[in-house]
């Protein structure tokens, strides 16, 4: 069986889509590795796999989407978590049916509907994280030692970007001003698919955690025009003005690394 096509990677604006059900199975039928993805699952929860999906699967520091799938026979499946399977390329939708009717495996058409407010919030927070990282990179040339992005959390309740290297707490206001400039400029945010060579030439940095396709395929990148690009599989807003107010909360340091925490309003 082929993997699930993640439609949100090509079109982030989709909030509804009709696709086909491939399987419906209890969490207990998953492999042990995939069961660990859903530690919050209850005995009543099921996992639905579809041919394509517009539901974002948790990863890259961004939380998963939630929403519903409605079948042609009247069944409604409430999606409460979404994860990439450990292998095989399937995207697993965890949830439960609203009533007794369930989807028909392998043949029923279903309409996927993503929780728009949740997706939009996560997209704003994710774009804000890129702005924070780019603001730090903008002032990196004037810093006594280099800093390199390590990773990030784009969860609204705990958003931050981690760096290898020391960023002094006095830099907070400088980072804030640059982020404010980026937001005010309403810079376009574009998605591209680049070769590894293009990625390394065009991105502000390529973190070590980025896995390059072994077959030389393309890698998804998000370019904030006029600010910089990063390899990224997450969802974003169309331009930086849609991020809204970003607050750089603090810069903390530990064992040679730095964390820039932020929030949005």
TrEMBL record:
Domain of life: Eukaryota
GO cellular component term, pick one: cytoplasm
One GO BP annotation of this record: alanyl-tRNA aminoacylation
Main location: cytoplasm
Essential cofactor(s): Zn(2+)
Domain Alanyl-transfer RNA synthetases family profile: 1-248
Alphabetical list of PANTHER family matching this protein: ALANYL-TRNA EDITING PROTEIN, THREONYL AND ALANYL TRNA SYNTHETASE SECOND ADDITIONAL DOMAIN-CONTAINING PROTEIN
Similarity-based family: Belongs to the class-II aminoacyl-tRNA synthetase family. Alax-L subfamily.
Protein name: Alanyl-transfer RNA synthetases family profile domain-containing protein
Origin species: Pyricularia grisea (Crabgrass-specific blast fungus)
């Amino acid at each position: 069986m082929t993997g699930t096509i993640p439609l949100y990677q090509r079109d982030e604006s989709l909030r509804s889509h009709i696709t086909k059900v491939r399987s419906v199975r209890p969490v207990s039928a998953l492999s042990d590795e995939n069961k660990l993805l859903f530690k919050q699952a209850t005995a009543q929860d099921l996992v639905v796999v579809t041919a394509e999906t517009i539901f974002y699967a948790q990863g890259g520091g961004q939380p998963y989407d939630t929403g519903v799938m409605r079948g042609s026979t009247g069944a409604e499946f409430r999606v409460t978590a979404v994860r990439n399977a450990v292998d095989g390329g399937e995207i697993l939708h965890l949830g439960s049916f609203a009533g007794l009717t369930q989807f028909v495996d392998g043949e029923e058409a279903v309409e996927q509907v993503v929780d728009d407010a949740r997706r939009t919030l996560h997209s704003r927070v994710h774009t804000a994280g890129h702005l924070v990282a780019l603001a730090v990179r903008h002032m990196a040339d004037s810093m006594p030692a280099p800093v390199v992005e390590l990773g990030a959390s784009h969860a609204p309740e705990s958003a931050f970007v981690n760096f290898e290297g020391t960023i002094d707490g006095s830099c907070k206001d400088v980072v804030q001003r640059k982020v404010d400039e980026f937001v005010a400029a309403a810079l376009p945010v574009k998605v591209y698919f680049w070769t590894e060579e293009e990625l390394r030439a065009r991105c502000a940095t390529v973190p070590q955690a980025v896995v390059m396709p072994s077959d030389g395929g393309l890698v998804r990148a998000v370019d904030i025009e006029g600010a910089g690009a990063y390899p990224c599989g997450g969802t974003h807003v169309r331009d930086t003005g849609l991020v809204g107010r970003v607050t750089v909360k603090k810069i903390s340091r530990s064992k040679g690394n730095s964390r820039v925490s932020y929030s949005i309003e």
